[in-house]
Amino acid sequence: MRTNFTLLSLCTLISLNAQTTALDFTANDCDGVPHNLFSELDAGNAVILEIVMMGCQPCIDAAHSITDNVLPNVSDPTRVKYYSIGYTNSITCTQINNWKNNNGFTHQVFAGMSAQTTYYGGMGMPTVVVLGGGSGHGVYYNELGHSDSDNPAIIDAVNAGLADANSIPDNDRLVPTISPNPAHDVLNITGAVLNGLRIMDIHGREVLTVQVRNGRADISDLAAGSYVAMPMNGSMSGTSIRFEKR
What we know:
Elements: H1 7-11, E1 26-28, E2 34-36, H2 37-42, E3 46-52, H3 57-70, E4 80-86, H4 93-102, E5 108-110, H5 114-119, E6 127-132, E7 138-144, H6 151-165, E8 177-179, E9 186-190, E10 196-201, E11 206-213, E12 216-218, E13 225-231, E14 241-245
Helix pairs in contact: 3-6
């Protein structure tokens, strides 16, 4: 007997991986801002990943539902990051930015990351994942497909991820400031405790890693230009600080 499968069935054939720990990534979003997933979780945030394909109406519906019905109803919306990412490496920033703009979305989107799709169990039109728990980097929700009836479970997962991250000292979640800006040889860090900084150029390439000692970071090895500083221990909620080196 020959069996026919719909596209949805094909997308959900891969069994859901029972992952309990998030898969880290470092990548620029499609506005060019660098992100490190573990740093954002370490900062006490929860992250909702929606893995999408182009031309997928359920993916669009899910994004509207998460934006309109999930994010406003979690315990602390200011600590929730929502990302849509392409399910395969062939999806470009041009494509997913068009998807974002054509559907009126304002959240951050990323080009294709097939490793994330594989790790969380395959493409489910969409696949929705909730990550949190601070330095535990836990997976609190992982489902192929989405309907509005899933939203209470997603909200509960986000709240659990935030609650488990609350053991992080408040000082570790403060947003640091960098001065002077433009800087010369030293960055002064105030407002948070940082162990070190990863310095990225405007193309998202890591060019320098520096330790922070007594609130100071030596950047004398940097060439003049524009950079983004990211905390190595994830101690800020905004994930990156732009600065100029002269």
